[in-house]
Amino acid sequence: MENPTVYMLPKMIENNKFNELLSDSIENKGWEVKQFTKKDLIKLKKNDVLHFHWPSFYYRGSSVLATVIKSILYVLMICFARLRGAKLFWTVHNIWPHNTGKTRFDYWMRKILVRNCSKLIVMGKPLISEICSTFGIDSSRIEVIPHGHYKGVYQGKGVNIRSRFGIPEDSYVYAFFGQVSPYKGVDDLLEAFKDLNSDQAHLLIAGKKVKDYDLGEEFLESGHIHTHFHFIEDDEYSDYFEAVDSIILPYKQIATSGSAILALTFGKPVVAPRIGLLEEYLPEDCAVLYEPSDPDGLLKAMNMIRLKQSEFQEGSGFVKALERLDWPVIAQRTLTLYSS
After folding, report:
1. Is the pTM of this model over 0.70?
2. Exposure winner among 25, 91, 221, 300, fewest CB in 10 A?
């Protein structure tokens, strides 16, 4: 019997490889995966799959009028897909959009999706209770499937990143890679780095900075702090990770973290708070975790990770951590869910 068609919403997204890797791994199992378009609505067959990732892409527009039109089409799309016998799934990367936060409008748009989904997918257990209480559903409607690794995805160009930023080869380099925004705590990282007061330590921050996020010029003018407020190109990710000793993720809130999984993939130890999925994905032999309630927790963890440098370089912890994040396993679990 022919397998149903999987329609990803979206199949690919700029600056995020997750959807592409998930789609490829499902296709490697013999299923067809397509980028969903409105024209595909009339092609839907019973048991075909519509797999949502960031619902707001489909109901929010660039103006009030555009949002009204898109939200109406979004609701009609969901209703029509159900009438055609398609199955709907939502991987909850974050409960609310990062750029707007929780609003009544987003609540109802997402509530409509949740009510029509066969299952919701989360990447770790910490989100389950919040989703259940937010949308009034039972935990049996939620499946945990982890985020896959990035092994073999990013090939470097051989660029010496330390040389590019004038960082001495014998320095210890802390790094933050990813979108530079308030909820990711980069301001706290700058404060903690200042308090390290170490001539041998450098901090490299690379990623697109959110507009109007003031990090303080006095910090950025330091000769030991280096910034690149632009997206890291895919063909330079490997070079950036090769240049640093540890990754610092002082997040204030988090649902998923590609940055943490990238660090595991490249064998770089991580400093992170004990919140959400970070604690679930980062074992002790790959990270130093701190209590977010401790005002000195980040600083102490940054000191500790440097002291444990030789332990992390042994590397067996990273190999073990990546085994459970293998894409063929994730694809099979996803297909089992589609078929249930």
Report:
1. yes
2. 221
